[in-house]
Amino acid sequence: MIKRFLIVVFLLALVLPVQAQTEPVVFGVFFYSPTCSHCHKVITEDWPGIQAEFGNQLQVLFINVNSYDGLAVMSSARDAGLLTDEQQGVPMLLIGDYVLIGDLDIPARTPGIVRDGLAAGGIDLPPIPGIQEMYDQAVAASQAQATAVATAEATAVIEAANSLTGNPALPLPDETPTLSERLAADPIANALAIGVLVALAFSLGAVALAVTQQASGTVGSWLNSASHWATLIALLVAAGLILTVALGNTGEVGEALLAATTALLLLLGVVAVGRGREESGGLLYGVSWLVPVILVAGVIVAGYLTYVEVTANTAVCGIVGDCNAVQQSAYARLFGVLPVGVVGLVGYFGLLLVWIWGKVTGSRYATLFLLGMALVGVIFSLYLTYLEPFVIGATCVWCLTSAVIMIALLWLFLPDGVIALASGQGSAPQSGKPATTHV
């Protein structure tokens, strides 16, 4: 739909009468992504009305940040001091000294800014290096395409959209970036995502091996030790990831506090794992507060992502990654409706409720449910983590933190879950030890 809209823009650039430059004009630059649902909403629902009000006196260059050239333009704007580290994500509109971000900010403030700019005699293109040449190139490309697409369908589209005016956009061949362009867009963050992806796949393989050994009557001597170290490493990595948000944030105190609190909880988990003892009945016998501490950290992460997705606010990303590109993509909602953050939030609360059930009743079924739910969480995280570097071309540190927390939970529940699966009992044994050593 965005591509169709931009084709209309190309055609109208040639069809509408050219006015002499006697009236003031406001120029701007609009950064968007074809996979961003918020961009789609602004471009197809809000922008036609804005454009109709100002006609040729509002000229905006549309730039696809998923393309190599588009990403370079945004980087140039940042290098030129037009954008701060906190101003990131799409849709983003630059008009003069104003930076508008999001599908609420852009339609709400753009008309007033344009009116004031026209009253003051107009506003030039933002001083991004090379932007004037790109604008001229886009105008020429729109005129050439308008000449080439002289079909009945194009005519009908033009007539249906005759209230719009001709704003240029970069050439359409850049709409779909290659895999190498996606990975190169943020190599550090995407490398982290790929590393987490490998860890997720490895953890699933370990579960399959442990369950197979236990089902065949072979007790894996490696399981407790592997669970201990895997849980320890996963919690350390998760704490490190979320600390990049706290350390890289210079403006939003609330988000920095959330990230720091989450990191502290995860580090407490590291201390608990380090002090725990490996017992024959499972891992970390006697450390009863470890699971709720980790789950509260997960609730904070999933809760923040839910807030960003539901309210369409800009996320704070920290040192690496582009959380907003991920949260504003079409993949931020499951089946196009349910925010992914809500799914994670429900999952963490579900794990907490099952943990409480196991704590109260001592049922081994609670242990099985904990392992099963963590396994589902890791599989879901595997899917979402794959999308970030290979499909979206951007990585969300909050999302990676949640994925690594799920890895820690899976390894934490694995020894007791395998034992409960093999025993086939529905209640705690009478040996004096709890059925699940984590509750």
Would you mind describing this structure in some detail?
This protein is 63% helix and 7% strand. It has 439 residues and is α+β, with helices and mostly antiparallel strands. It has two domains: 2-176, Glutaredoxin, CATH 3.40.30.10; 180-423, VKOR domain (de novo design (two linked rop proteins), Up-down Bundle). Strand 7 and strand 8 (338-339) form a beta hairpin.
Summary of the model, kept short:
This protein is of the alpha+beta class and 439 residues long.
Key words describing this protein structure:
single chain; 439 residues; alpha+beta; de novo design (two linked rop proteins); 2 domains; four-stranded mixed sheet; two-stranded antiparallel sheet; 63% helix; elongated; disordered C terminus
Helix content: 55-70%
Q: For the terminal residues, how far apart are their CA atoms? A: 51 Å
Beta content: 5-15%
CATH class of the largest domain: Mainly Alpha
Radius of gyration: 26 Å
- What is the structural class? alpha+beta
Strand order across the largest sheet:
2-1-3-4
List the helices and strands and how they pair.
Layout: H1 2-15, E1 26-32, H2 37-54, E2 58-64, H3 68-79, E3 92-95, E4 98-101, H4 105-119, H5 131-148, H6 152-160, H7 179-185, H8 187-215, H9 223-248, H10 253-275, E5 278-279, E6 282-283, H11 290-311, H12 323-327, E7 333-334, E8 338-339, H13 340-361, H14 364-392, H15 397-423
Helix pairs in contact: 1-5, 2-4, 8-14, 8-15, 9-10, 9-15, 10-11, 11-13, 11-15, 13-14, 14-15
